[in-house]
Specification:
The structure is a homotetramer. Chain A is built from nine helices and no strands. The first copy, chain A, is mainly alpha-helical. The first copy, chain A, has two domains: 53 residues, Homeodomain-like (Arc Repressor Mutant, subunit A), CATH 1.10.10; 125 residues, Tetracycline Repressor, domain 2 (Orthogonal Bundle), CATH 1.10.357. In chain A, helix 1 packs across helix 2, helix 2 crosses helix 3 and helix 5 crosses helix 9. Chain A is elongated and about 60 Å long. Chain A starts with 11 loop residues before the first helix and ends with a helix. At the A-B interface, helix 6, helix 7, helix 8 and helix 9 of A face helix 6, helix 7, helix 8 and helix 9 of B. The structure holds a DNA duplex.
DNA sequence: TATGAATGAGGTTTCATTCAT
DNA sequence: CATGAATGAAACCTCATTCAT
């Protein structure tokens, strides 16, 4: 069970939780977590304030739900066949990385507020992330491991697992930064188009995977 | 003049601003911006709350000062000869990048709270960053331009300026992420030592700079 | 029937009431009445909150039960042969009073929280004390009447009933004050040991009983 | 300075505190402390809620003020010549004690709510009574010391100080009990008129002071 | 200009009570 | 009858901002 969350998940109670999570997901797409008030959440979910406290011990207990919502969104996105990554045998590593980058980019642009909040709270309250966050990361790392395996002959990093992790980390960090905060932040230095940026990201990961150990 | 900041910079008034900025700098190293109250700032600066409002129209008007403080810190750090980057003719690109990475890492570890807040607000309130942020970025990009120029024969990117910008962006983003939030966030996937991470960062930038255009 | 209490005392219903009273008695020994929540009581009694409201119209309706619990405790205490007051013919009034005082003191020290709450609510909500409180008092007054009767020749108060009432009142008030609130309150002025206090109490009652009418 | 109370007592600030204390005193005469809300106090004092928190860190910080108000009331009462206790040489101990009792009784009847609350919180929150409570007690004990000194030949208790303390304690406890809670509580056993009760109280103290050590 | 007391909207949390199941 | 989820009024407290001195 998530931190501060309150037991009992059946019948009316279960539906209430669903209403709350749905209302919360809506709000998370509209504004940052700390501008969301409990009263607002209650209203959006169509329940009373007390009801929120019936399911969540306090406002902090909602933080793990951010990741639950995030994970749900990713699953929904991954379930869409349009986003399936098919690794053709005739393909090479670089275009495959570009596909991945382009996909990640689309996702970031589609759900900026939610992803922003998730990333923010993963940092602000690491104690409250729960297991969903790990699941999210491991899934993504796994995808890279597959790609590396598939184009094994092109990759020169000796430790494939470490390489997959770093590749994920690189791509994730760099794209989230640019995708979420756009022209603000250090990204302002770039002044490039979306497409150019996607290409550069792919190049970066490609460069990392194919360069020899020091 | 910075947004929301109030004119008149002479005599008593000027010293008041200095006191405020110094107190603010102290507090920024201790806690996040939004946990700093105006009353707290006034006390730390040794002035009255009303006086703060005499210089800054509202709390938001302090956000640009975050970047001013950040820039001042960078300048102080850059002014220290111990941190000067000397590009020896006999050197090669890769060790030079490693030096840069190691330096950046030290800085991040020395001033995490301030850098965290600056990066956060550059994203949360891009409208309020002011000119200092640009100055910070251009300075850093410039350093990369120098390095690229110096090891020109090793770099295969055709557009040197664009390459310098991306290199800065990469390094900055990736290191800030890992340096500030450590094990939380996607960085948790890495599970590597500081030294290994620094090396990987250098490799990444190196890989990017030396890989051929698509 | 007690105020606000709900009829029907048979079978399942009767056992529910017992569970509630037992749980309530436990809680009364742990904390003041107004820090006890209905949800807490329900849990302790092993029933649902709604069930509490099935037996008691509202929280106030529990106040008379405080006295019921108090009375039960006194009866339990009085039933213990170790606490029986045997008035020997060779005894005199003063040592008898000291025995009574010492006994009362032990009781106060054994059940401070419950007695404190009972006395508090007898004052705060005199409308809700119910008949149990009278029973408690009359039992105690009766004991004094016996003692006065037994040492009739030593007592100089003409009205024996009034004397018994005042004696009880004196002892009760003075000891409860000191026993429950110890060093706080006016008792702070005393600064005496338990034994000395018990002796002084006995002296006081003795002085009252043996002094002549004005 | 009192616990949780906030510094600065001059000019506007001083007047605000006065307004608050006056409004508080009014409310204390009307209802128990814990039914008084901060918003209510603010309104009564004619200030904003924030202002209350500007002077008192939290609601608990008002508890010491209860005793301040109580002490002020006692001083006001003591200052009235009508209440001065003149010990005539021709007097004897017993009538003097009766005068004291009668006076105490009048006071109790005049300010029941305030005295009730003060006594209640002296017990509930002994940590917050502050110095005023000690001052109140010592003043009262001092009065008894005087009386005992004046009628020294009638008093048979060897330790005059201890006797004064016990006399005060007795009288205070017994009268407060009866005066504040009237017919509720153990006082219900008495069923006597006010005058008879006053006489009995005097007799009790007299009995105590004039009976020989055990 | 400097001060800091005063303000009050707005946020979180508790808990007696109701009522659908 | 029993249950416990749902309710929402009401309490406490914070803090950016104003304004009289």
């Amino acid at each position: 069970m998530r931190q501060g969350e309150i037991q009992a998940e059946q019948g009316r109670s279960r539906r209430t939780r669903e209403k709350l999570v749905m209302g919360f997901a809506e709000l998370l797409r509209e504004k940052p977590f700390d501008s969301i008030t409990i009263a607002e959440l209650a209203k959006r979910a169509g329940v009373g304030v007390g009801t929120v406290y019936g399911r969540f011990a306090n406002k902090d207990a909602l933080i793990p739900v951010i990741f639950e919502v995030y994970l749900k969104m990713l699953e929904h996105y991954a379930g869409d066949p349009a986003n399936a990554l098919t690794l053709d045998e005739t393909d090479t590593l670089r275009p495959a990385l570009e596909k991945i980058c382009a996909q990640a980019w689309r996702l970031l642009r589609a759900e900026p507020q939610l992803i922003r909040t998730a990333h923010l709270y993963a940092r602000l309250r690491p104690d409250l992330v729960g297991e969903d966050w790990d699941a999210i990361i491991e899934a993504a790392v796994g995808q890279f491991r597959q790609v590396i395996e598939h184009f094994s002959h092109e990759v020169r990093r000796p430790d494939r697992d470490a390489a997959a992790r770093m590749a994920f980390y690189l791509l994730n960090t760099v794209m989230v930064e640019q995708g979420l905060y756009g022209d603000a932040g250090p990204g302002a230095a770039l002044r490039v188009s979306d497409d150019a940026f996607i290409t550069d990201c792919a190049t970066t990961v490609y460069g990392f995977l194919t360069s020899v150990e020091k």
